[in-house]
Amino acid sequence: MLAEGYRPLAGGTDVMVLFEAGKLVHKKWISIREIPELRYIDVSPEHVILGALTTYTDVRRSEILSKEFPLLLQAAAQTGGIATQNRGTIGGNIANASPAADTPPALLVYDAEVELVSQKTSRWLPYTQFHKAYKVMDLASDELLTSIRLPRRFENWQHFYRKVGTRRAQAISKVCFAGIRQGDQIRVALGSVAPIPIFLESPDLSSITPIDDIRSTANYRLQVAKNLMAEFLSY
Amino acid sequence: MQIRVNGVDHSIDAPPMSRLLDVLREDLRLTGVKEGCGEGECGACSVLIDGELVNSCLVPVLQVEGASITTIEGVANGDKLNAVQQAFLEYGGAQCGICTPGMILAAMTLLDQYPNPSLEQIKEGLAGNLCRCTGYMRIFEAVMQAVQE
Amino acid sequence: MIYGATVRNPARRGKIRSISFDPGVPWDEFTIVTAKDIPGKNYVALILNDQPFLADEITAHGEEAVVLLAHPDRYLVEKARTLVRIEVEPLPCVDSLEDSLAKTQVIWGDDNIFKSYLMNKGDVDQAFAAADLIVEGEYETGAQEQLYIENNGMIAVANPEEGVTVWGSMQCPYYVHKALIPLFNLPPEKIRIIQMETGGGFGGKEEYPSMIAGHAALLAWKSGKPVKLIYDRAEDMIATTKRHPSRTRHRTGVTHDGKLVAMEIEFDIDGGAYATLSAVVLSRGTIHAAGPYSCPNVRIRSRAFATTYPPHGAFRGFGAPQSIFALERQMNKVAAALNLSPEEFRRRNFLHEGQSTATGQVIREKVDLEDLLFRTLELSHFHHHRETFDRANPGSPLKRGIGFATFMHGAGFTGSGEVALSSVVTVEATIEGTVRILAASTEIGQGTNTIFSQIAADALQIDYSLIELAQPDTSTVPNSGPTVASRTVMVVGKLVEAACIGLKQILISSGLLAQTYTSEEFAEAAAEYVENIGPLRASGEYQPPPNVFWNDETYQGDAYGAYAWAVYVAMVTVDPITYEVRIDDFVAMQEIGKVIHPVLAMGQIEGGVAQAIGFALYERVAWKNGRMANGQMTNYIMPTSADLPPIRVFFAENPYAYGPSGAKGIGELPMDGVAPAILNAIEHATGVAFNQIPLVPELVMESLLPRNRHA
């Protein structure tokens, strides 16, 4: 059906907002929310795999994620409110590709891979390669994002996450910082400071391109990103 | 399509992308569900779908086929208010009342998860329901009093 | 029922060249209303009558209503809106206070000034010349959206034979009534306005409902059908009124020992493109600008000026939050310049009984602000925290501070306003033996219904369950004045009390009721009276308190019947990483005459404090191209439950002789003292003086970054 121009509708928490504002351009939607095969959290010795329809509430309730991927829980807990978390999905969040999304930075530092499936093909892609430009993804029009795979090698790292929003809850982020660290090795990702989430392996912030917008200023985002990096490194 | 609302089965004939909010208010005349923002920000439209709190303004009706929905109209037992409703009345949890249906459902679902919540848990559980009148203090009080019941 | 929608000016100020209708909907099925269809006069009757219901040849601001549409299909109406093309030939705009006052372009009247005041007490010029120290300061506040959770909405039926009936969400049915009379050129008895359950107002439904009611009624008039006109959130935010932005300049002269000798204040508020209520907002802000201090020489020059923005209007506090913010920041500045603590400086200047305010009003009640301040500082552990923070801040990245504000708020209409309103309340007994209150005061969440019932039950000495309230319907209730200005309990409640006492007298005089009675006996007697004698009714009409004098020309005299007095304390932490301000504790102490209903009174203060925290730190209106650019709840930020501190509320009592059971008005009071208390605390925490609100983290950062400090 994707090949026929239908787009998948998951939790609806992004799509419906546009729909109500009259800004939804695409007209053909197919709801995939009811496909139980896409909502799960599986554990193997090497990986934890999330189905694309895993909700934020599912993430928050997962013991394995809490233990080995705590930044995902922090991101989920700060996405919208309880009502949004009950409906919104990780797959939907990734595919909606908002530069201000809260989960992608955590997925980037955890070296996630995404599974993209079409009627005839199926491939795994490192998440670092998924977002290419503002709302442009390595996702063919007939491909569905079906799962997210996380390698189980970060449990003993130090985990740091901070979302800076317009208020303490129910806020779109102005700067989002995820960082994990082991010895000299760091893995950092930032949201809301570029058209796509940015992954870094050094403290060099020169690749971020924050802007002035309705919520904040480029100066503020840049300065806060620097402050967060310094805080993270001093941990 | 079939949906169950407040324990009663209904046959609904509405365009699939209709908001659950509109189907509840207009098709089923359950006007206790309120529209405050249409963006999923204020929580005035909160209902429970299979026991989970959701913003009905963001749910396309096609996604609730076969589901069991609870609105504020389904909370009391005839004339007998539940503990949360009673506490809201006694402790000033409602001023103008527009946020109250959603707020009560949010409080109920919070207490389902945390029967004896801390103030922090109450604040977090209700953070998706905006109230412009109360400053939330009487609402927190009402929830804590409801726990005593 | 058909559904209405408003098509608004897509440009800014300009001449409307044409209105055309693109294909795409069956236009012949639509009801279309423009200014040409108005049966009577095209102005919203309020104060200056300058604002049209629909722009005609000139449009004065972006989002001004130009065309109204209605159709049975609600979704088709939304589509049709996008197909109406309004061509506007631009005219010059005025965007700022500077431009407006400089008259680079005159967009209103002769000089862009809706109203100005000049208040004089004593001789400031001489006093400045003799002052030991003079301190100046400038302070700004931004627009704020009322953000009631229920949007504006009306339902109307209208035709020339039967007249006009409107049901809707509103604070003041008689304001709407007054506005529709000239619109339809109908006599008063043919206009009927009914207030329905209203989901919050805060002033945002004081005057704006007249506009949307007129629109719904015009569509009903032309179509011959009932019309429902409900705004969605975006339209409500972008098109309706907001709090007036302000700029205040202070010049304060003091003696070495910290006594105020001269206060000169310039208070300017931005009214947007039409006058609406700017004159009255200005009035209240002006009168409150010099605060609860005794100063022999005061000059206040204030102006409400026009700019090319959607008009600003009423919002809880109504000018006072703006001028009191400036004053309480200035008082701290002067204290620091004198090397006095902020509390000591204020102690030396508080008003006492027998002293006079800036308008020359002699305080005739026992006000003890020193005691109120002392108690509040104790309750907030002010000194302990201040010392702790002073010690810890230099060595800590987290900066903590504590600050306070002391203020007063006058309830009821200013000066002769209440006399002009000449409000009336009627009570009547029913055949069931209950008593029904007929008043135009609306329940908007603040507890009108509860308090009136309480007052009535008390005055009649009967059970609360015997009291009913008539729905505010202009065809049945008398004009009790608007539900604004913190007057509902203090002024109208007093009329409820008076009317009930009158009713009781009638019943007792009739012989059907003894001097003392039970609830049941009262009900029986009332029912019997109605059954056998006739209607049992009594009214209370406003009587001004004796010895109240006010001069509208010189703006001198007794501005308000009563003031509530307050001290608010805020404790804050400034986050060094994000520059966010977190409020850790908030203490709100006020003397409000008498607490009629403790839970409702607490609720008013807590809700007002929360709303004022939004005013201080979060609620920024982003203006772009002459209109609000962040008209969504996602981007206009009000505090959630997770953002607010514990708000600890305390009351002191000092009964006011002319309020029911001694009560003074309290609805707006909490709006006044929060922002300055918070900013005083932030200055304590950071050592940097911030003088502009909303103080969002981006602004905090600008002043705290080391490179900016050296500049």
How would you explain this protein's 3D organization?
The complex is a heterotrimer of chains A (235), B (149) and C (711). Chain A is an alpha+beta fold. Chain A has eight helices and 13 strands. In chain A, strand 3 and strand 4 form a beta hairpin. The longest helix of chain A is centred in the C-terminal third of the chain and has 16 residues, at 218-233. With 149 residues, chain B is an alpha+beta fold. In chain B, 34% of the residues lie in helices and 13% in strands. Chain B is built from five helices and five strands. In chain B, strands 2-1-5-3-4 form a five-stranded mixed sheet, with helices on one face. In chain B, helix 2 crosses helix 5 and helix 3 crosses helix 4. Chain B is globular, with a radius of gyration of 15 Å. The termini of chain B are far apart. The mean pLDDT of chain B is 96. By secondary structure, chain C is an alpha+beta fold. Chain C folds into three domains: 2-91 and 152-239, Aldehyde Oxidoreductase, domain 4, CATH 3.30.365.10; 246-414 and 556-710, Aldehyde oxidase/xanthine dehydrogenase, molybdopterin binding domain (Aldehyde Oxidoreductase, domain 4); 423-541, Aldehyde oxidase/xanthine dehydrogenase, molybdopterin binding domain (Aldehyde Oxidoreductase, domain 4). In chain C, 31% of the residues lie in helices and 24% in strands. Chain C is built from 19 helices and 28 strands. Chain C is globular, with a radius of gyration of 26 Å. The termini of chain C are far apart. The model of chain C has no long low-confidence stretch (mean pLDDT 97). Chains in contact: A-B, A-C, B-C.
